[in-house]
Structures are given as C-alpha cells and as structure tokens.
Amino acid sequence: MEIIERQRRFFAGNTPGERLVFVWGADPQPDAPAVEQLPPQVNAYYLANDGQLPDHAALEAMVRKTVADCRRYWRWRDELVDDDLPHIVAVHFDIGIQTAVMTGIEPRLEGSWWLDCNLTWDRIDALPATPDNRWFEMFRSLNQLLWEAWDGDFHFLPFWHRSPLDAANGIRGNELFLEMYTAPDRVKALTDWCVDCELAIENSLAQTIQAPDDWGVGHMGFVMPPGGVWVNGDPVALISREMMLEFEQPYTGRLFTSTGGGFFHNHTKGLYQVDQVAKTPGICLQHFNADPNCPRVSDILAGPPAARDNLLAASRQTPIFPDQILYDELDAYRPHLNQGRFALDITCPADKIDSVINEFKP
C-alpha cells in the first residue's frame, strides 16, 4: 500500500521535482520467476483451436496461472528493488482487437493482431454504439475472473483503448487523414461515435467491478484513478498542431473527463505536440515511447533551451513518462528534474540499481 499511496500523492500533486522511479536491470535475471502473461495465452489458444476464442473455463485457467505467476514474481522483486512499481496484471492486447471489439469485425493474428476495416461511410453509419460480439465477451470474462482472483493485491486495466481519432483511423482507414480536409464533418462524427462506443465499453465492464470504490486501475507501472482509461494516441505524431486541436484533443478530452481520467500514450516522433497533449482535459499522464531515428526526451532536455523549456513546462501541467531510459542518458535528466514532473523508467547495470534508486527516488 505504501507504493500506491506514493503514486496517489504524485498524481494529486503539482510541485516541480515530484517524480516516480522504476528501475530495471539491463542484463537477464535467470533467477526471476517466469510470468506467462494473459495475451500470449489467448493467442496460443486461438491458433491451436482454429480461430476459437477461449471460453470462460479456459480463461479461468489462464487467469489463475497468470495471477499465481505474478504473485511469485512480485515477492521476488519486492525483496530486491525498492522503487515505485506497484503490482499489476497486464491485460494488454494489440490494436486489432480493440477495433474488433468496437466493430465486431474479425481481426487477423500475424505476430500481432491487425484489423484494417476500411469501412465505407454507409457501413460506418450502421455501426451500433454498444458492442455485442465475441471479442467484447472475452473482455467481460477476463474482468470477472480477475476480480474473482483479486485479493486486494493487484491492479489491472479493464480495457486498452485507441484514442478516439486512432480508433476512427482503424475503422475508416488512412483515407481518414485526407478526409480531415475534404470531409471534416464526417471525420468528426465518426470520432465522436468512437467516444460513445468507448464509454459504452467502459460502462458495461464497470458492472463487473468488485473492488473498493477507491481502488483504481493499473497499467504500465501506474495506478490510475477509479474508472481511468489508457489510450493509444499515435495519430498526434502524424498531424499538424492545428489539426490536433480540431480533430483529436476535444474527443480524447471528452473520453477522459467522462471517465476517471486518462493516460495518453505517444511516441517521441510526436514530441512537437507535448505542450498541447499536456492540456488535454482530464489527462493524468503523457507517455513517450522512443522511436528509431527520432529525438529522445533526453535529447530535448540536453538540446536548445526553447524546446527544453517547453517540455519542462508541459511536464509541470501533466507528468511525463519517458520509458526505457538508458543509464547513459541520466546526465541529460539530472540538471532538470527539479524543474518538471516525471515518471522515470530506467534501465541500468545490475550493480547500479541501488545507487540509481537512492539518487533518483525522492
């Protein structure tokens, strides 16, 4: 509970210098208990059973195994590392399944789950706003079974969303980006429908909740408020700042303010949007995944003052989570940590773990 309270204080605060710290060893740890996560088990079942999804009984066996594996792993890690990582069971499926839940159209499994709907506007207009398909039922079962296995000792994310604009792209296809100019009202109507559909998903899954009202949900190392959501916001790295304000922010903001708040996933290719994303209504955290051949957050901090100051100001409005920070990058962070609010996900040599925690954990 101490870690959960530290996280709650971090998200409730607004003082520069506040931070969370997660530290990982760079080398394999052969003594770490293995964890068989839920998504790979579902994928293996699907492939072994000619495209059938696991029924409730099969999912129950998977949940029991994953939760037991996780509990062994947590006991092992808690004895070795004193950072801010809470106990979370990962329920993290690929974006093809998110679109399948929203549309009822079958995705394909090719290493990852993909679904390129490319629906016509006539078919889009006929989509029901309330999901009722086998993909949604799988998530309903997973939620029920995870709460049955819960013993006050872990968090999980009920459903992994695409941002409304990303969801609209998944349904309409890449033509959507041209139609922002040629048919903007159509694009806005579809993006608004995506918010309605995502809220229907959240409301339906909420009926399975058995935890205390203040327990919250967890994903990627964070305990979010009750009813919090996570969104894949990749399109903000593909559009202008002006188009982001028109076609993305209002809709993601409606999703976040209609739930318990939101965790926004982005890529460092989209760092030019950092200040605007930070102003999204209801946002709790802005995540940056490092892209190849693109500046990293550390490059911005070590670079020209204008871009650095813009990023630090954005972090004071909404905390920034750069993942997989390398040990060699820490010099870029050190001079600026007290000017912003960060969650630091640091990978370092095993013999440096304790010293990194002692230095960076407030």
TrEMBL record:
Q: Which Gene3D superfamilies match?
A: 3.20.20.210
Question: What is this protein called in UniProt?
Answer: Uroporphyrinogen decarboxylase (URO-D) domain-containing protein
